[in-house]
Amino acid sequence: MSHHIVEFKDVFFRYPDGTEALREIHFRIVHGESVGVVGANGAGKSTLLQHMNGYLMPTSGTVTIGDVVLTKKTRREIRKKVGVVFQNPDDQLFMPTVFDDVAFGPLNLGLDEASVRERVHQALSVVRSLDLRDKPPHHLSAGQKSAVAIASVMAMEPDILAMDEPAANLDPRSRRSLITLLKTFKHSKIIASHDLDLILDVCGRCIVMRDGRVVADGPSAEILSDRSLLEENDLELPLSLQRQVMA
User: Fold this and answer.
1) Tens of pLDDT along 89-138?
2) CA 73 vs CA 28, 68, 190: distances in Å
3) Distance between start and end Cα atoms, the chain
4) Nearest CA to 67 among 4, 149, 116, 148?
5) CA quadruple 154, 117, 80, 66: dihedral sign
6) What is the dihedral of CA 51, 54, 56, 58, to 10 degrees?
7) From CA 213, how far away is CA 25, in angstroms rounded?
8) Nearest in space to 162 (alpha carbons), one of 86, 54, 72
9) Would strands 68-69 and 20-29 be described as parallel, antiparallel, or unpaired?
């Protein structure tokens, strides 16, 4: 299924202040792959994700989603294919109620009222937040906001899901629900996170970034059990593997 492919070819990105955030990024993600992106703060993870639906545009190189090359003219088309959950839910929640926020995307796809309501109900149910539907987003806790932001993207039924620190504000039960949800999403998904146990649990492949470059790319079980590689990149073994070592 070519429309689920994500490909970066020799991508560089420089912020207006001159900071070079991405350097020579090259990888290809195919349909059904679950890919974790890990690295220390400032490694370029969030910048990378923001290129996947045109929130940021490469300084040079190409980003291709399916068979569509990302340009200013194709951003709208690509945003229908790629759903991005930002690290800060306040960047996504701006409507008067939770229902309105989750309905915003489907309405913009041109769906009828009954279909929109069905999608909102389903998305909020999946993240255990249906009881929040009539609440103003700015009255929610950080964890509730994260859940609603995820629902707002899932309601779009994207071909590709990209998530930036999706579990950062979640309590243990909500985190487990998120992991279960992500395992049921059968299309391509890319997850940037410091939660290496989540990556190990959900993603079959892992990309390690440092200083805007990809320094390792391979099976998560191999990458995330390589203590030397992780320490070189200011990371630690996932807690589950640390316990195995201690045992």
Assistant:
1) 888 899 999 999 999 999 988 899 999 999 999 999 988 899 999 999 99
2) 22, 11, 24
3) 43
4) 4
5) positive
6) 70
7) 6
8) 86
9) unpaired
Nearest alpha-carbon partner for 188 in 51, 104, 65, 46 = 65
DSSP per-residue string spanning 172-223: HHHHHHHHHHHHH--SEEEEE-S-HHHHHHH-SEEEEEETTEEEEEEEHHHH
Q: What is the pLDDT of residues 44-80, one digit of tens each?
A: 999 999 999 899 999 999 999 988 999 999 998 898 8
Contacts of 19 (CB under 8 A, 6+ apart): none
Q: Which domains does the chain show, CATH number per domain?
A: 2-92+159-246 (3.40.50.300)
Cα 69 from Cα 56, distance rounded (Å): 14
